[in-house]
UniProtKB/TrEMBL annotation:
The keyword RNA-binding does not apply. Gene3D superfamilies: Metallocarboxypeptidase-like, Zn peptidases. This is Peptidase_M14 domain-containing protein. GO terms for cellular component: extracellular space. It comes from Parastrongyloides trichosuri. InterPro entries: CARBOXYPEPT_ZN_1 (IPR057246), M14A-like_propep (IPR036990), Peptidase_M14 (IPR000834). Residues 1-16 form the signal peptide.
């Protein structure tokens, strides 16, 4: 009876995963006003059959979506008739080792972890607690809030204990559910720092590196178990089915967007539990936080505020730009990877209510968004990073982070 129960449970879990089998992937580039009209007509005609996962609905933007193979020919014909600028990819199946996480036995054993695979949120947290037990004088973990579905959200702090509050370098990861590479890169960075703590001994005596390993654990687990391209949190209502995009829910530059967009920013600024967890921590510690990094994918960009408006720059922008140049030169010299530098609005498109802009708005001078590999010209789906690319992503984060850390230590502490 027990074996039958387990088999039934496994079948249910497997059948609940949205596989994208026999789906085709379309990208439409929006160059002119006419293209926006074409997109609107496409929505009206095929809306129920289209699964959008990028919706930059403005001139210069793009949309990407999946369509099942039965509808694909009709969509292809429609776009061709309307002279749309588009590309599409067909595969028999989109399922691979990066789409559906394989159950890898003993991928976390105590303070040992397989750095080259994707992990569940629980395994990730289990590993961090094991590190805390191993490095009691250097690591602390604190629960700072809960997600919509009740999962605990933690800060993981690296730095020697002190009687006084130390300057903070803050990193957040996993705010967008489908961007799995951010957590995996972070594990590699943590592993590097702990194995080389003697090298950074002086810095870690005077600085705390505070990490929120996953801002959106509900969305991340839903992406792992049910729908790979999920982006938002799991606050679903009758009027919208994408959840809330947490990186559009911060108050700086917040703006209303339709509730059928996957970038839906919530009913009000700071409406989501996960967002308020970050806002509360940053606000309470703003006089101590000297640097802020928000980890994302993809495109290989290092983005500065402001993100919500083109040709719009905060005070001391040159200082943040100059440090950004050092960071991208470092990663290029060490890995040959090329990152582009600029504001999110200028390099990509305006984005309202993002965490980096909020950090800058409360006085955190050095605030950056890192968009990891693959590069923007990647021909496959950039959010689905194969596990074989995890080591390189970790190296890229390491060589972006080291000059960031050393510069802030030199500017605020050493001198």
């Amino acid at each position: 009876m027990y074996i039958l129960f387990i088999i039934t449970l496994l079948i249910r879990v497997a059948s609940s995963y949205f596989s994208y089998e026999n789906y085709h992937h379309f990208t439409i580039n929006l160059h002119k006003e006419r293209d926006l009209g074409t997109l609107s007509k496409l929505n009206s005609q095929f809306g129920d059959d289209i699964d959008f996962f990028i919706r930059e609905e403005h001139i210069g933007g793009r949309v990407q979506f999946f369509v099942n193979h039965l509808t694909s020919k009709s969509v292809h014909s429609f776009l061709k008739t309307h002279n749309a600028s588009y590309t599409y990819i067909t595969k028999d199946s989109w399922i691979d080792s990066s789409f559906v996480p394989k159950r890898k036995k003993r991928s976390v054993v105590g303070d040992k972890i397989n750095l080259n695979v994707y992990h569940s949120y629980d395994d990730f947290i289990k590993y961090l607690f094991a590190l805390k037990n191993k490095y009691k004088n250097m690591i602390s973990i604190k629960k700072i809030g809960k997600s919509y579905e009740g999962r605990s959200i933690y800060t993981f702090t690296i730095g020697y204990q002190s009687d006084k509050t130390k300057p903070i370098i803050f990193l957040e990861s996993g705010i967008h559910a489908r961007e799995w590479i951010t957590q995996s890169s972070l594990i590699i960075l943590i592993d590097y720092i702990m194995k080389n703590s003697d090298k950074y001994n002086d810095i870690l005596k005077d600085v705390d590196i505070v990490i929120v390993p996953c801002v959106n654990p509900d969305g991340y687990e839903y992406s792992r178990r049910s729908k790979r391209m999920w982006r938002g949190n799991r606050n679903i209502t009758k009027s919208q089915s994408y959840g809330v995009d947490l990186n559009r829910n911060f108050p700086t530059g917040w703006n209303v967007e339709p509730d059928h967009f996957e970038t839906y920013p919530g009913v009000t600024p700071s409406s989501e539990l996960e967002t308020t967890v970050i806002i509360d921590f940053l606000t309470k510690n703003k006089k101590f936080i000297k640097g802020f990094l928000s980890l994302h994918s993809y495109g290989r960009y290092l983005l500065l505020p402001w993100n919500y408006k083109k040709n719009h720059y905060p005070p001391e922008y040159k200082d943040t730009y100059d440090l950004g140049k050092k960071m991208i030169e470092s990663v290029r010299n060490k890995t040959k990877s090329t990152y582009e530098l600029g504001t999110g609005a200028d390099l990509l498109y305006p984005s309202n209510g993002v965490s980096t802009d909020f950090a800058r708005s409360i006085g955190i001078k050095y605030a950056y968004t890192i968009e990891f590999l693959p590069s923007s010209n990647y021909t496959e789906i950039g959010f689905i990073v194969p596990e074989k690319m995890i080591p390189l992503a970790g190296e890229e984060l390491k060589y972006l982070f080291i000059p960031f850390l050393e510069h802030l230590y030199g500017e605020y502490i050493k001198n």
